[in-house]
Amino acid sequence: MSARSEKRTLFGDILTALVGAFRWIVIVVLAAILCSGIRSVRTGEVAIILRFGRLLGETREEQVHDPGLLFAFPYIIDEVITVPTGKVFELTVETHNTQNYMGPNVRENGYIITGDQNIALVGASVKYTITDPVAYALTTADVTSTLHGIVSGSLATGAVGMDIDDLLTTAKDAYRQAVMTDAQAHIDALGLGVTISSMELKTVSAPMEVKSIFEAVNTAKIESQTVINEAKQYVELTIPAAEAEANARVAAAQAEYASAVAAANQSLVEFRGLLDEYAANPDVVLTRVYTEKLTRILSSIGTVRLLEPGETTPGILLQ
Asked: What is the pTM of this model?
């Protein structure tokens, strides 16, 4: 066999091997493409299918696929998008917050302007869940950035109708509720498919340059309110006690009055009875009364001394 024939045979063997390998590669690629539509939807997720870029299904039950094994066409036909509906997302919004002293370039500082034209710093943490997976997946490519902008705008809008003193003290919760309501309204209007579950105000304060002054004012307000509450509490405790004591004294006086009147009436009845007896038998009554009085007097004295005749003071000496 010539050298040229040997080369042809070797080239043919190599070509045959390459064709065989390419055939297996094609088979593997085709198998991978065919199996690419088989997806496992995990717990806490749902899936939607886009067929040639169009949402598959007419109703929500047809569009949203629950956790489990999902069969779809290969990726070149169907695109499977999973949405974590069972997860609570947290978003931090610090657009209107400056950590340190504010710099001379106003645009580089984060702040809001209150209704009385004061500057305040606010920061918030928002927790939200996906309640409409179809809207969440198809409305916008970056829901987080859109939501951040909405909450940031609501933080600024909510402060417009508040004074700085109220915002820093008693109106924080009302401000938080107003921001949540306004942000959710914008989210629903855009159809983002998410719902704010809670919001926490991480920062609500005056700028560092005037923070100590505001804190002193707030402290004075709190102390004044404390004094007012203590005074109200004292009034609530003292007045009922005084009224109770007054009522007790009035009741005691009335009881003493009734007892005195009863005793006086009893004495009057006895005197009139004695007077009637005296009118009928004056001597007998006079002797009896004299004897009773003398007996009462003698029973109350301590010593009885009789003087002998001839002494300076004859008779009975009572001590």
From this structure: 0.59
